[in-house]
């Protein structure tokens, strides 16, 4: 009984697969026949040949081609309302439709009249952030000339954003990001060699406006805007060694009290988009941010007598700039109407 049941299932699967393959073959043949009808001037036959498979049977690419044939045939027979309806359905099926070299001018004109462009773009990005620092004023607790070096280390940058397109070229974008990176400070004079290693976690909201340029299969967007960056944690590790070799000390602590809690960062970004199927994009972004504020909270520079008295460490005045490289994916949402 069980063997008979399995045989029935296999037979059913075979029949279903055969029927599906036959249906797909019939629709592929229908598309070929419709193309022949169009190129031989039998325009009135095109829609009749395609009607059944447009309703169910074509895949996405075949459906785009079918609507295009109906629109072209309608244009040649001067049924312009019917042509526009077919074009609207074609663009809803494939908003990223691209012209072929042989497409007639009237067809291109009517497609372009729809002004198709994304309405909303939702994006996820992940990548690296490289901080750079510039010292504006050195503070040395020992009152001696010191050689001070700041060095940023690459960290992580993860973000989400949503963009609204005003037209084909211009968009406005709001994004949220999490950043984590570290930097080192080397302070060396004739008495002491001290090194601070500090790891920071930050988040930021950013608002920007972009302009799009097309280049072959790529589209490139140039964004300009501003980010509001907030510091959440600042974990420090300080190592001090006397030049005469008399001893070494180290100390771990939170440096949050002596750091500015937030800052504004103007930004510029170059975003490269590679269109994919089903209205997806692969993206690569290159962004430069400039910190406007002093990273040190000058009001609390001497908040810890332990730092200044025992470790003889005082925070300098310095500012940061940041280079961010990310890769990501975006989903485009279109609104197409007559």
Helical fraction: 25-40%
Note the gap between the termini: 60 Å
Shape descriptor reads rod-shaped
Largest sheet: 8 strands, antiparallel, barrel
> How do the strands line up in the largest sheet?
1-2-3-4-5-7-8-9
- Give the radius of gyration: 32 Å
Structural class: alpha+beta
**pLDDT < 50 stretches:** 1-23
Count of alpha and pi helical runs? 6
Give the tally of β-strands. 9
Q: What's the arrangement of secondary structure elements?
A:
Blueprint: H1 2-39, H2 43-55, H3 60-76, H4 80-93, H5 105-112, E1 118-137, E2 147-165, E3 170-188, E4 192-215, E5 218-242, E6 248-254, E7 262-275, E8 280-290, H6 305-310, E9 317-334
Antiparallel strand pairs: 1-2, 1-9, 2-3, 3-4, 4-5, 5-6, 5-7, 7-8, 8-9
Helix pairs in contact: 1-2, 1-3, 2-3, 3-4
Structure, described:
- The protein is α+β, with helices and mostly antiparallel strands and 338 residues long.
- A hairpin with a 4-residue loop joins strand 7 and strand 8 (280-290).
- Helix 1 packs antiparallel against helix 2 (43-55), helix 1 (2-39) packs parallel to helix 3 (60-76) and helix 3 runs antiparallel to helix 4 (80-93).
- An eight-stranded antiparallel barrel has the order 1-2-3-4-5-7-8-9.
- The chain has helices at residues 2-39, 43-55, 60-76, 80-93, 105-112, 305-310, and strands spanning 118-137, 147-165, 170-188, 192-215, 218-242, 248-254, 262-275, 280-290, 317-334.
- The two termini are 60 Å apart.
- The protein is rod-shaped.
- Mean pLDDT is 86; it is low at 1-23.
């Amino acid at each position: 009984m069980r063997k008979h049941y399995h045989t029935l299932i296999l037979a059913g699967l075979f029949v279903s697969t055969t029927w599906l393959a036959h249906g797909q073959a019939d629709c592929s043949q229908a598309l070929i026949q419709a193309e022949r009808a169009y190129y031989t001037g039998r325009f009135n036959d095109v829609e009749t040949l395609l009607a059944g498979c447009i309703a169910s049977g074509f895949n996405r690419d075949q459906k785009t081609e079918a609507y295009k044939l109906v629109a072209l045939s309608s244009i040649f027979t001067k049924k312009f309302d019917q042509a526009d309806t077919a074009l609207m359905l074609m663009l809803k099926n494939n908003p990223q439709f691209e012209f072929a070299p042989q497409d007639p001018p009237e067809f291109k004109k009517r497609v372009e009249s729809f002004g198709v462009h994304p309405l909303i773009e939702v994006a996820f990005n992940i990548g690296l952030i490289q901080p750079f620092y510039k010292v504006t004023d050195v503070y040395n607790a020992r009152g001696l000339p010191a050689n001070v070096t700041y060095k940023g280390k690459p960290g992580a940058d993860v973000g989400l954003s949503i963009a609204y397109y005003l037209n084909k070229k211009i968009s406005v974008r709001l994004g949220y990001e999490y950043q984590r990176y570290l930097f080192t400070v080397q302070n060396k004079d004739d008495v002491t060699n001290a090194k601070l290693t500090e790891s920071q976690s930050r988040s930021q909201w950013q608002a920007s406006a972009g302009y799009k340029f097309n280049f072959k299969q790529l589209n490139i967007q140039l964004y300009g805007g501003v980010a509001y960056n907030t510091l959440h944690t600042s974990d420090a590790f300080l190592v001090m060694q006397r030049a005469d070799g008399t001893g070494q000390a180290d100390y771990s602590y939170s440096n949050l009290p002596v750091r500015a809690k937030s800052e504004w960062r103007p930004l510029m970004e170059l975003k490269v988009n590679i269109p994919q199927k089903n209205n997806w994009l692969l993206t690569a972004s290159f962004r430069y941010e400039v910190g406007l504020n002093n990273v040190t909270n000058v009001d609390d520079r001497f908040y810890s007598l332990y730092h200044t008295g025992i470790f003889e460490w005082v925070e300098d005045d310095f500012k940061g700039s940041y280079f961010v490289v990310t890769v990501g994916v975006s989903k485009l949402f279109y609104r197409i109407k007559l």
